[in-house]
Amino acid sequence: MKNWFVICACALLFSACASPSVSNKPLPPSATETEYTIGVGDQVSVQVWKSPELSLSVPVRPDGKISVPLIGDVIAAGETTRKLSATLSQGFSEYVRNAQVTVIVLNPSSGEYLRRVRVTGAVTSPISLPHQQGITVLDLVLEAGGPTEFANGNKSKLFRKVGDKMEVYPIFLNDILQKGRLETNYFLAPSDVVTVPERSF
User: Fold this and answer.
1) What integer best gives the mean pLDDT of the chain?
2) What is the DSSP string of 60-71?
3) What pLDDT shows up at residue 26?
4) Which residues make Cβ contacts (< 8 Å) with residue 55, sequence separation at least 6?
5) CA nearest 61: which of 43, 48, 49?
6) Of 8, 70, 99, 128, most Cβ neighbours within 10 A?
7) What residue spans of the chain are helical by DSSP H?
């Protein structure tokens, strides 16, 4: 009986060691939406509470500024809507009591390419798509027509900018497609790039 328990324990230990696992591999940060930064060409709406005559909708000029009644030119490019709202509220406070300003980006044209996701390499049709909340690696690869017959799926990579660095994360694409193992079927973030290499012969 004692030998039986030893044999079982060894078998379990061997099984754990032999089974591939990605749990100890680095995972990308959560693909949360970051706060949008206003850019040149964006159409912004400035709403001043209880002062509709001061509200307006204007494009951000090539110099990065917008013209606002009473205040004049204000730098908008490079600011978030929250930061610009605070700047305008402070500027209007000299003329409007308890000035409350809301800024909304109506047409974020400057961020179109910054908010795309891309897949390159050994896929049927490498593509660039507008990012949508909830899109995954698998969604992107399927949109590209799937990997080619020469693809080395389990050597795929996800490239993501995190702060000032470009981080690289492993994608086991064959395991996702053929075995239903979804550990590396990451949710994508704007500007993510997925690469699928070819096999070396």
Assistant:
1) 85
2) PPTTSEEEETTT
3) 58
4) 45, 46, 47, 48
5) 43
6) 99
7) 2-18, 81-92, 137-143, 173-174
Pairing mode, if any, of strands 43-48 and 56-59? antiparallel
CATH topology of domain 112-201: Outer membrane lipoprotein wza fold like (3.10.560)
Block means of pLDDT (10 residues each) for the chain, 201 residues, are 44 38 54 76 93 93 94 94 95 91 88 86 95 94 96 96 88 96 94 93 71
Domain ranges in the chain? 43-108, 112-201
117 within 8 A of 129, measured Cβ to Cβ: yes
> What residue has token string 């395991």?
175
174 φ/ψ angles, rounded to the nearest 5 degrees: -60, -40
Structure tokens at 21: 């696992």
Q: Has domain 43-108 been given CATH number 3.40.980.10?
A: no
Cα gap 77→94, rounded to integer Å: 23
- In 19-165, which ranges are continuous DSSP H helix? 81-92, 137-143
DSSP 177: I
Q: Which residues contact 79 (CB under 8 A, 6 or more apart)?
A: 37, 38, 87
Give the C-alpha separation, 171 to 185, whole Å: 7
Cα angle value 146/151/154 (rounded, 5°): 95
